[in-house]
Amino acid sequence: MKIRYITMLALITVLSSCKDNEIFEKEMYKNEVALISSNYYNTFQEIVPLTGDEVIGYIAASAGGTHSPTKDMLIQLEEDDTQLDFYNRSLFDADEKLYAKLLHKDKYEIMDYKILIKAGERTGRTMVKLRPDGLSPDSTYFIELKATDVPGVEINAKKKSILYQVLIKNDYASQAENAFYSMTGLANDMVTAANKKLFPLTRNRVRVIAGTESFESKEDHINKTSIILEVGADNKVTIKPYKDIAVTQIDGDERYPNLFRIEESFGRKFNVFLLSYQYTLNGTTRHMQEELRIEINR
């Protein structure tokens, strides 16, 4: 009787194991489709150069499973703001001033709201035409899309939506990098030094805090304390007010000739601005002679 009981128990165990293996193999082999994004709120970053022209980006999907699909897999995309609302409330709660924004319709065009993963392949993609000029470096912009159910295609529930983030850059600054230029020079003939972040505005223009002023990410402070550096085709720099600040460019300084250049030293390259100007803030005028320098990879 005891032997019979042990035999039955062993048989049940074998059958259960076979069933578990069958389920495991089925899970391994199935081609589940996911929109390609990071695990951070399903975001995907597209870093877009400011050129004055349209820039091409892509939204992609992949098919999981042990083997590539044996037949074409087509998924349909549609725009939605559910994930963006979750993103904003999770990160910023009720502080709507910090909320990310949906990219305005005139700034992009999705060529086809379908993604095809061909038989024998793992990925597919659709093209996005982006028009980034005019975007603010102080805002976060997303295109939000989700994959809708299509007969015969299984979609990963955790990866069926994507927040496609558009980040802007030019040759001098990037919204995607928290990189700072080292500033050295003179403020009213007194030695000064600091770190400054430059913000891309257009192909050849950046925004920076004037002189030795502190940086605050408040719109009124930015408007009051920021200047624009515009680099010409001859690398000469024109200094202009960003919004409310009074600034005057001072030319003729041999050491700080209002010039941009790329310097090389021992195999390293640097972006360098040599600037001379004066600005007035809260009734006080400061004369700045400054060098802005950052190492670059080119």
Biggest pleated-sheet summary: 6 strands, mixed
Strand content: over 45%
CATH architecture of the largest domain: Sandwich
CATH topology of the largest domain: Immunoglobulin-like
Low-confidence stretches: 5-27
The Rg value, from CA coordinates, equals 28 Å
User: How many structural domains are formed by the residues?
Assistant: 2
What do you see in this structure?
The chain is of the alpha+beta class. It folds into 2 domains: 31-169, hypothetical protein (bacova_03559) (Immunoglobulin-like); 181-296, Lipocalin, CATH 2.40.128. The chain is 15% helix and 45% strand. The chain is built from 3 helices and 21 strands. The protein has helices at 2-29, 82-92, 219-225, and strands at residues 32-35, 43-49, 55-63, 73-79, 101-102, 108-110, 114-117, 123-130, 141-148, 154-155, 161-169, 181-187, 190-196, 199-202, 205-209, 226-231, 237-241, 246-249, 259-265, 268-281, 284-296. The strands form 4 sheets. Strands 2, 4, 5, 7, 9 and 11 form a 6-stranded mixed sheet that branches. Strands 12, 13, 18, 19, 20 and 21 form a 6-stranded antiparallel sheet that branches. A hairpin with a 2-residue loop joins strand 12 (181-187) and strand 13 (190-196). It is elongated, with a radius of gyration of 28 Å. Residues 5-27 have low confidence and may be disordered.
